[in-house]
Specification:
This protein is of the alpha+beta class and about 400 residues long. It contains 10 helices and 6 strands.
Amino acid sequence: MVRKVRFAKSMAASALAVMVLVFAALVSSWIGLDAESRGRGAVAQAAQLERDVAQAQALASRAAALQSEIALEALRGAQLDESHARVIDYRETLQALREGLARLQVAPLAPGERERLAAAQQSIERFVAIHAAAAPHLRAPSRVTKLQAAGALLDAARPVADEAAAQVRALERLVAARAAAAAEAADDAAQRARVLLILFGGASLLLALTLARTLSGTLARRAQLVGQLAELARVDAVTGVFNRRVWDEELARGLERARRTGRRCSVGLVDLDHFKRYNDTYGHQRGDALLRAAAQAFGTRLRGDDLIARFGGDEFAVLLHGCDLDQAIQLFERLQNMLPGGQTFSAGLADSEGREGAAQVLARADEALYRAKELGRNRSVGAPASGLRSVA
């Protein structure tokens, strides 16, 4: 009788132990699934925020560039009324920027991120106010008044634009850091669940192995999500080529490489001709498809270590290592016939020994691109340090 009681108690204890192990396994499974769900949500949210911030930064840079172009147009004596193409482009870009910032305003931002966003908005509004104050003078009939207003606009607006860009970049870093922290936290939670699973063993071995397989899949998907986030931070979502941030980094490295090796590099800024009209006629989806096709066409003719990136809007930037200006012009002449549907482009090219800064090289390429458009588009213009050279 005593033995039966002891056996019953032992069986009950074993059954209870099995139940505890099964319950612990279920809890661990729930922890792993919850970690995966929270991690996926956090990464997706952060990725969307980063895309919105990157778009806002691109629009802010575009607005600043357009404002500088408007000032330069005024210096050239252009009639800057509301129907002028650059004035319209500036107004539309500014509207898109404000809408993008408004979306970020209602996004789930942390206090520090919201402070950066507020600072960026203030800088942008100051930037807009400076332009609004200068606009009447830029349209004045007096050339002297235009020159003074354009000079004052360039001097006053650039620091404010740089400040706004710095705030947006700081916001982007905060969002990326939050995404990384969310990914790490989810990964830690999944790892803890796996440790608990290993401790169960014994009677729940089969369940433990099943759960371990589930957790391994969770960790693999987690790593894939983290990899996708890292890729999003470097690749333009529309064209599949590198984005502006990667371009800025690689241009600096390319110039340093040219200085170190003594072999010149060339920088090209490419603008698809009449892209806005194409977009308005066929719609944004066809416009995006044309951008992708152009990026692929350019990329097929580049060497392995050359670089193409989306510079903004319908503009691409190309970095050619060990390539002087004449070789770059010959390459772009061959590229003119490679775009689909007879689409043409204008290009501004500049080469460098790497002894000048990235901003100076880009300024020469941008000046050459502007000249290519002035000459009727569908051509490449080179900008050596001594002056411009046009190739139809």
